[in-house]
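Good day; I would like, with your permission, to put a structural problem before you. What I wish to show you is a protein chain and, alongside it, a tokenised description of its three-dimensional fold. Thank you for your consideration; the sequence and its tokens are set out here:
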Amino acid sequence: SIEERPALMFLNQRLKGMRFHEKVQEPGHPLHKAWTELSRPGAAGIVDRLKVKRLEVHKLLTGIRDRYPELESHLDPERVASWDPKPDDGTSGIGPRIVRGIVIVLVVLAIPRMLSQCSDGSEDSAPPIAVLSDAEVDAKVREIFGLSVDMDAVKRVDPKLARELLTAINKPDIVLPLNFVRLQALGSAEVADRDALEARAELKAIWLTAAQAKSAQICRMAMDGDLRALTLDFSEKERAREQDLLRKLLEAKVLSHMPKGGETRYAIPGWLVNDTLERSGLSLERLKAALTDPDSAERCEAETALAQAVRASPKKVPDDVLKGL
């Protein structure tokens, strides 16, 4: 090993930091997108979060804070703060508890809401100029929420969501409007009341069931919350039900929430485990392995069966399971 005097060590680290600063600004660098995103002024919004993976942002911030802390001065403080995970106040996760015998503890990676406004990040900023006509915009909104809801109705209930939805409608190359609202529904658990949590859980069951019927890859995407370009095939009845449930979440005013993300731990009561076992066809050991290992080949079957079991008896399901699902 080579020993460095403290002063020399300090200078060497600064030189490494300078080299990293030069390289990370090159388009081919793996963290270039994250650096560019964090260098932009203003807080990140919904569409901003669709363009960059949270893992890359986390890797960049962790790396420079550990090795080259002086480089953070090149980033925009407000943008960094909007990406930084909030400190855990002890309420985001609920520890395991014994519930009538059979208990499984899940660790669920809450999808960071890859979502935000496309403008300057301010809630009071003017909406983007519509590329589509009002009638075309209303048609897109009705596809999501049903015939009774147009863009004016969304504006009355949730103005912030209306601005973000209009951005998604005008920029479907970034995220399909329906999938944008689905993503927002997934991220609503932190602020949803009991009725909204049950609606969200039923939506998850509908999506996973349709995705599993399509392919293992599609099921994995739906399970991971990778809904941006996902196309799901529904029966007319299920499509109408999805619209009803999304409309319920709209009326609850939870679809414009920007979640913190992170990990959630929760316990599954014994009766729900039994129902999940029946629906999945897995043994207890295989079910436990699938639900506790994110990379399990049987994870999708297990989560789909769990979501279907929750959908069958939502009133009996504990709040923490509904939030973590």
Observations:
- The first strand starts at residue 104 and ends at 110.
- The CA atoms of residues 5 and 237 lie 72 Å apart.
- DSSP finds 16 helices and two strands in the chain.
